Amino acid sequence: MCGIAGIVRFDRPAADSHPAVELMLNRLRHRGPDSSHVALNSFAALGNTRLSFLDRANGSQPMASLDGRWHLTYNGEVYNWRELREELRNHWQFRTECDTEVVLAALASWGESALPRFNGMFALFLWDEQTHLGLAARDRLGVKPFVYSYERGVFAFASEAKALIATFDSSPRADADAVLEYLVAPYFSGVERPMFESLRHLLPGQCLHLSRGALAQSTWWDWQQPDELRIDRAELAVSLAGRLQRSMHRTLRSDHPMGAFLSGGLDSTLLTSLAARFNGAGLQTFAIQFQEQAEFDYDRSLIVRSDDTPYANTAAQEIGTNHTSVSVNRNGLPDELRHIAAINDTLPAWEQELAQHHLARAARAAGLRSVLVGDAADETHYGYPFLLDTEVTRAPENILQRFGHPPLNRHFDDSCRRLAGHYREIAEAGGYRWDTSLSCLLATSYLIVKRWLPRLLQNGDLHTMAFSVEARVPFADTEILELSQSVHPSLALQAGSEKNLLRQAAIGLMPEANRARPKSALPKDQRSGSIFKRECIRAIEASGDFLGVWLDLRAVNELCRPERSLTESERALLFRVVCLHHWRQCYNVRLP
Question: Are residues 166 and 60 in the same domain?
Fold first, then answer.
C-alpha cells in the first residue's frame, strides 16, 4: 500500500520535474511512512511512498525491470499475485517476494490485458522507456484513488489531490460544477472531478494511455446486471458462500496482523467471522459509539436504522475477537470537522466520515496497518432499503429528493436539472433505461455502483490512509463481483427485505442475529445539530463570499436559529457547509 505520484513532460528532461515530485511525496507521507523514492527516466519522474506488507527489504518502488525498459509506481494489493507469478515465471526473472513485481511483470508481458487478471485493488502508472508511452489504470470499483491533470502537454498524477495542488504556481480555484454537485448530491460527487479546477479522477475500471502530444482514455471493465432470471437461487447462494471464504483467504495474505471494523451488521460481521476462522484467536475489532447513541431516534432516520453497539458487542463475544468500542465525545466535533475536511480533499460527503476517522485512528493506535471493511456489499448486492421503493428509483431526480435539496441560489436551477440529466445519461450509457419498474431499478443500481460506491470507497481510503492504515475490501474480490453480476434483483430484494441472496449465503458462517439484522448504515451523531448550527454561523461569517456563490445564505442562516428543529437532511447540509468552509481555508481555495 503506497502513495504514488509522477510528472511526465516531453519538453524537458525528467530531472527538471524531480523537485515537484518530491513535494508531492511529502504531501503523501502518511500513505507510505516506511520509505520514499523518486525514479528519473527520459521524460518521466515517478515517485512512491511505501507502506510495506510483503517483502519489506526488496519491494521498494518505483520498480524497474532488469533491462530498464519498464518502470512502475503502484498503490494497492493484488491478492492473486502468487498464482500470477507462477504463470509468469518462465517469462520473467523474479527478484522479490511481493505483488509489485508481479504487477510489473504482468503488464510488461501482457500489456493492458493483464488488468482483468488482477484480483485486488490498485491504482498504477507504468512507463515504457523504450517507446516513451505511459499507462495509468485503476481497479474495477475504484478502491484506490488516482487524481491527474493534463495541461499544455504536461501529465501529472498522484494518489490524492492535495499532492497535486502543492505543485501549483498559485492557490487552487474551486471547480464550480463539482462543488455544486457536492451540495446537491454529495453521495455521487467527486467521482469524476475533485473539487479543484483542472483536476480529474481516473474513473474505476478505466485506463489512460499517454504518448507525446496525446492522452486517450479507455474502459477495461464495466458493471453489468441481468434483466432476466437465469440462475437458481440456491445454486447461487452455495457458490457465493464458497467465494466469500476464498476471498477472505486471499485478503488475509500479509506479513502483518489485520483488524476489522465491526459494526454488527451483516457485512462486517460476516467478514469478521470468516477472518477469525482463518486468522485464529485475537483478531482486533473496532466499533464506534457516540454519546447517548442508544437513545437516538432511529425510526425517522433515512439510513441508520438501529444502534450498532449491542449487535457489535454480542458478535465480538460470539466470534471471540479482541473488541474495542471507540467512544466519541462530541465536544471535540469542531476540531474533528477541520481535520476531516483537510484529510478528504474531495470534501467530506457524509457525517459517517467522522466515524471512519475515529475508527482509523483507533486502529493505528492499536498498532495495526490494515483493517477489513464491509464496503461494496450493499452496492453490489442490492443492500439499500430505498431500492424497494419504486417511487425513489423511478428517476434520478427522485433519488436526489430522497436525501434532501439544499437552498441554492435560484440561478442554479438549470444546473441541477442538467446534473440529474447527467446521471440519467450515465445509466443509459451502461445500457439501462428509465422506463419500466425493473429497468428503473437496474438503472438506479448501476448508478449506485458507478457513482455512490466509488465515493464511499474513496472516503474510506483517505480516512484510513491518513493514519497509515490500509482498508481491505473483500467484497470487491473479482470472484464475488463476477457472481454478483449474475444476480437478478428478484433474488436479492424479497418480502420487503434487502440483500437476501447474501443473507442466504451467510447461513452458518456468522452469528444468526447479525445475519438477520436489517440494513443500518454506519452511525452518525444525531445530537450534534446544535454544534453544526454554531459552526455553520461561524463558517458563513468567515467564508460567506465563498459559500454564497452557491447557497442562499439567508435560508442557511434560518436553519441555524436555536429554536429550529433540524431534519436529518438539514443537519447533513450544515455538515457540508461547515466542511466546505474548512476545506476552503485549509487549501486556500480561490473563488471559481
Answer: yes
Mean pLDDT for 124-138 is 98
| 46-158-143 Cα angle (round to 5) | 120
Q: How confident is the model at residue 54 (pLDDT cuts 50, 70, 90)?
A: low
According to DSSP, the β-strands at 206-211 and 284-290 are: unpaired
C-alpha dist (Å) from residue 532 to 296, 358, 585:
17, 18, 18
DSSP element (H, E) containing 35: strand 35-40
Residue 72 lies in domain: 2-172+186-219
- DSSP annotation of 451: I
Digit-coded pLDDT (tens) for 132-171: 999 999 999 999 999 999 999 999 999 999 999 999 999 9
Q: Which three cell numbers stand for residue 384?
A: 439499500
* DSSP three-state, residue 556: helix
88 and 164 housed in the same domain = yes
Same domain, 125 and 167: yes
pTM (global) more than 0.90: yes
- In angstroms, the CA 444 to CA 424 distance is 9
Are 420 and 553 in the same domain? Answer: no
Judged against a pLDDT cut of 70, whether residue 235 lies above it is answered with: yes
3-class SS at 569? helix
Q: For residue 221, what are the contacts with CB-CB under 8 A and spacing of at least 6?
A: 115, 116, 140, 204, 205
All residues at 6 or more sequence positions from 461 whose CB lies less than 8 Å from its CB, including other chains:
143, 144, 145, 471
Q: Using CA atoms, how far apart are residues 445 and 324, in angstroms rounded to an integer?
A: 34
Does any domain span residue 224? Answer: no
Please give the backbone phi and psi of residue 76, each rounded to the nearest 5 degrees, phi first.
145, -165
388-443 confidence digits (pLDDT tens): 999 999 999 999 998 888 999 989 989 999 999 999 999 999 999 999 999 999 99
Across the range 366-375, mean pLDDT stands at: 95
- Three cell numbers at 316? 465480538
Q: How confident is the model at residue 295 (pLDDT cuts 50, 70, 90)?
A: confident
Question: Could you tell me if 291 and 267 lie in one domain?
Answer: yes
One-character DSSP codes across 141-170: S--S--EEEEETTEEEEESSHHHHHTT-SS
Burial class (CB in 10 A: 0-12, 13-18, 19+), 563: exposed
pLDDT > 60? residue 55: no
Q: How many domains does the chain fold into?
A: 3
Same domain, 110 and 248: no
For 475, the grid coordinates are: 467484497
pLDDT of the residue at 176: 96
Q: Is residue 271 part of a domain?
A: yes
Phi, psi values for residue 389, rounded to 5°: -95, 105
Radius of gyration of the chain from its Cα atoms, rounded to whole angstroms? 23
470 has which bridge partners?
Answer: 370
Helix pair 529-547, 568-586: axis angle to 10 deg: 50
- Residue 578 is assigned to a structural domain of this protein: yes
CB neighbours (10 Å) of residue 298?
12
pLDDT at 563 over 70: yes
Interhelix angle 99-110/81-88, rounded to 10 degrees, is: 50
Mean of all residue pLDDT scores within the chain:
94
Same domain, 118 and 199: yes
Between 54 and 9, the higher pLDDT residue: 9
Do 75 and 61 contact (CB within 8 A), yes or no?
Answer: no
